[in-house]
Automatic annotation (TrEMBL):
<keyword id="KW-0808">Transferase</keyword>
<keyword id="KW-0489">Methyltransferase</keyword>
<dbReference type="InterPro" id="IPR050447">
    <property type="entry name" value="Erg6_SMT_methyltransf"/>
</dbReference>
<dbReference type="GO" id="GO:0032259">
    <property type="term" value="P:methylation"/>
</dbReference>
<dbReference type="InterPro" id="IPR025714">
    <property type="entry name" value="Methyltranfer_dom"/>
</dbReference>
<dbReference type="InterPro" id="IPR029063">
    <property type="entry name" value="SAM-dependent_MTases_sf"/>
</dbReference>
<dbReference type="Pfam" id="PF13847">
    <property type="entry name" value="Methyltransf_31"/>
</dbReference>
<protein>
    <submittedName>
        <fullName>SAM-dependent methyltransferase</fullName>
        <ecNumber>2.1.1.-</ecNumber>
    </submittedName>
</protein>
<feature type="domain" description="Methyltransferase">
    <location>
        <begin position="64"/>
        <end position="173"/>
    </location>
</feature>
<dbReference type="GO" id="GO:0008168">
    <property type="term" value="F:methyltransferase activity"/>
</dbReference>
Amino acid sequence: MADDALDTDEVAGIYDELLETYKKQWDHQGHRSLHLGYYDDDHTEPGAAAMNTMRILSNAADITEDDTVLNIGCGAGEDSVWNARAHGATVIGVNISEQQLELARENARNHDVAERTDFRYDDFHDLSTVEDDSIDVVWGLEALSHSHDRAVALEQATRVLKPGGRVAFTDIFLRPGAGPLAAEDKQKLAQINDALGIRIGPITDFEETLESAGFDEIAIRNMTDGIRKSTKRRQQFSKVAGPVGKVLGAVDAVSSTKVAAFEAHSNIHEFVDRGVIGYYLATATLPV
């Protein structure tokens, strides 16, 4: 992939290929979250920490049973199911992978919230399946990092939101004060971006993009310390699985996509540990 572009089919292909790895993680933690867990005194295990991230974001978004929530980049639907179960919200999930959408529908059926969820094939840069002024909350849990043009994504969010509607996102960004990256760090960032189909940008730029899109009441919360244990766990796993994967990859037993993902997760934790990358929660409101 080019430095500034993301191909939808290519990104979907990366995560479809990684599904078997994620399914093993789901079996271990007891749910289908793909996201970083937020650890605190009450949430000390990976599964509980991942659910805690959803809880924190839903609380920040102030989701209620009266809300229609649009979950962009919904993946296997765990956070959509969470909002339907925990708050009684109506949730529309959009994703660019049919495999993940089918898993999301199955997830909703298994948790008896199929009647309050609707999973659609759609790109959150287009939202062609979502009507104007029909959504109370646009929700993205590590979704916007998959955008190479967040201004367009927010333009679509403002179109589908009702007046007074909210956005709520968590994601990884470059931290303020990280400074210009050295050549080696630029290479590592490019590796992360291409391996995971993402584009990590500065949190300060994203805040300005929210302002330019017309949002008010913008709040940015640094959650990096809480997810540090999660990125470290992924790095530890990657340091074992990566070398093994390279060996098995030589005989086509493990794909290059999986090996690259292992390296990317290791690089992410290094950047988190060094203060280059942070994990942020952003909320904002559309004026009435």
